[in-house]
Each structure stands twice: as C-alpha cells, then as structure tokens.
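Figure S4 source data
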Amino acid sequence: MANQSTGLTRIIKAAGYSAKGIKAAWQNEAAFRQEVIASILAVTVAFLLDISLLERLLLIGSVILVVIVEMINSAIEAVVDRIGSEHHELSGRAKDMGSAAVFLTMLLALFIWGMILWSHFMR
C-alpha cells in the first residue's frame, strides 16, 4: 500500500512544494520578479492611502492576483517547453492564452486602482 500523507504531514509537504515553486519562479522568471517587486510597492502604497478597508483589500488583492496568474502562466510555459521546443500550434496557443490571462489580470488591477484613486483624489 502506498504511503500517502494525511493531515498535518500533507499540509507541511504541500507548503514545502509551494515554497519550492515560488523559489523556482523567482529564479527563472523575470516577469515574476518584476511583478513581485511592483506588488510590494503597490501594497506599500495601499497601506499609506487614506481609504476604507474594503478599498485597501481590493487594491492589494488585485496586484496579488497578477502575481498568482503570472505564476500559473509560468507553469504553463514550463510544461509546454518540457514537451518540446519545436513549434506546434497548440503549444503556441497555450502560451498565448497564458500571456493573455496575465494581461487581462493587469488590466483588471489597473481598472481597480484607477477607479479607487479617481474616486478619492479626482472628485
């Protein structure tokens, strides 16, 4: 019978795998590093603004979502690259769709930031 982890052991192992994934993304993905740095700056700004808790959560959540989607996009790219380097329509489509997901998430974050900042500072 296979040794399957349950309970706390499974959670600890999952946290270790997650840390390994974040480390790999940081080491191998320039876009991930740039977005993490931008997110740290944005979160800092969000805490300095005189806004409501809900608005602060929306600002922070939107930039963290960009980082999350970038990590998923990087995972898609890694799998596609693992399969092979020759051009294939489906591989290109997968990479383009992952990139589009990051782009749309960035647009969402910009929209949220724009609307909140506009409502407070441009009235």
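Figure S5 source data
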Amino acid sequence: MSFWYENHVIAKLLAWLLFPLSLAFWFISFIRRSLYRLNLLKSYRPSVPVLIVGNLSVGGNGKTPVTIWLVQQFQQQGIKCGVISRGYGSRAEQYPYLVKTDDNPTISGDEPLLIAQRTGAPVCISPNRQQAIELLLAQFDCDLIISDDGLQHYKLQRDFEIVVIDGERIFGNGFVMPSGPLRELPSRLEEVDLIINNGKSTAYSNTLMRLVPKFAVNLLSGERKLLTEFQSIPLNAIAGIGYPQRFFKMLQDLALSLETTQGFQDHQDFNATHFAKFPQNQPLFMTEKDAVKCRPFAQKNWWYVPVEADIQGENVAPFMQAVLQKIKEKK
C-alpha cells in the first residue's frame, strides 16, 4: 500500500487508525514463533542444509535475483542446489509441482520459472514447504535447499537466513501490517546470518547488491542489443514487480529516454489488452520476470532487460564459507 511509504498527514492517520490491527498481528506472530521455538508446534528438519532468502517487509525487495546469484555461486563450487518457492500466482493442477523450463508461467508462477530458466537447478513449488523439499530430495541429488521467501515460515527449520532490504524504501513507516509493510520488527535482523541491501546502503548492513543490466533481449527473436544502442530512441516501459520505479530508474540512469511508463502489481497476469495504449512503432521495455508471461502475445519491438546481481561486502565470503562447511559436515 502506498501510504506505508508516504509521510503526509493522511498517510500517518491511516497508519494510526490501523494500529490496533497491527498490534494483534504482531502478538499472534510473536506467539506463533514462540511456540515453534519451544517445540510446542512441530517443525520439519530436512536431511540437507536449508538456506532461506527472505525479507521483513511485504513486496519485492530483490529476493529472486539473490536466489539466482546464490545458486550460480554454489554451482561454481560443485554444489547441487534445489530451490523451493511457495509459487505465488501459480495454478498447477497439484502440489508439490516440479517446474519445467518450458512451463507456462500461469502454471508455475513467474519467479520459479525464471529461477529454473536462469540456473538450470531443480525448482519445486508448493504452499507446503516440507512436501516441496521431500519431492526434490526424492528425485534429485541435492546438497543444499534454497528457499525463495519463507523467512516467517517457522514450520521449516533452517540453517542459514538472508534478509534482503530495499535500499530505497527500507521499512517504510516502520509499522507492522496492516499499518505498515513489516512482517516482523527490525530487531529480527539481529538473528539472521546475512543482510543484503538492494540498490543503496542502509544502516543495517554494508553488504550491497547492484542489479547490473548489460543488454536487451527481443521477446520474439531472441536478438540481443547493447542498451547503449537505444539511447537515441524514445522508449516505453512497463514493470509488474514489487517496486516498478526501481526498473524505470535503472533505465533512466543508463541515459535511456522513457516517454511512457506503467507499473503493474507484482505477479501481474498479463494479456494483450494491457499493452493497447503503447505505440507499436516504439520499443517497449520490460523486466525478465514480465517477459516470461508476455511471450505468447509479444510484438516484434518488445524487449526485456535481464540483470545480473553483483553482491559485495566483507560479510559475503565468510557467509558463503560457512554454508559450504555446513554442507561438508552433512555429507
């Protein structure tokens, strides 16, 4: 909700009006987590290490690029990763569901499909994380399970936790839902193993992720062009991600001229009518996550911009080494 990140009087009033509900949300969350910690509620411990990539706030903070980066880094070390996801927006006939790289994104969900296509790692989606892990371990030789989201899913025991923070919006007004965007209070950060800032440094960590674009890819032909080739051409852009402005700003920072931009809700289920207003004689740019859903009705001048995560910070190497050591101990 936009008022979570605004500072005017109406936004503050809305936040305080909803504050009793936020207190109830926090109390229920606190009791639930305490019950798991005291083993009064049953949790699941897999036979291989589990690494959670999550966040404290609602909305897109950049977890999926981090997940892809982690899988690729571990693959370079000879580690076989399996990825689980709730599969938000998916419509598989049954769960757990193993994602195929040629899946329709309406079946698998956009982010799980993107992870599978970019990494080649086995990806399983299910609201029941235990079932997803058990299916992966039954069909693949996995050394490590990486969970894309699930920080607050305490039914799943974990060995490592990463929290991704949006460096632009951080934690908004600082309230828990529904007064604000937080699922848990910032004090939860004291317990996690690595905090990654997406885009800008924050007071919580010196580990910084930059999403680096290098080229644009045509949705129909697969042709690749350097982004500099578009600098003298008027462009349009759409983004169906948690924070569309991040994508638009990235393009503008590359000296690209955006005539029209339109943000959609995260995990937007696109169809051709969403693009009727854009002139066909101008290139239309979108994220790679959007592109997996738009190929069936794409036009010849539609392009997506893949990004590579560049994660730097003094805590990154020790964290990666700790995970590798845990994997070695479990074997």
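Residues 19-37 form the longest helix (19 residues). The chain has two domains: 9-79+143-209+310-330, 215-305.
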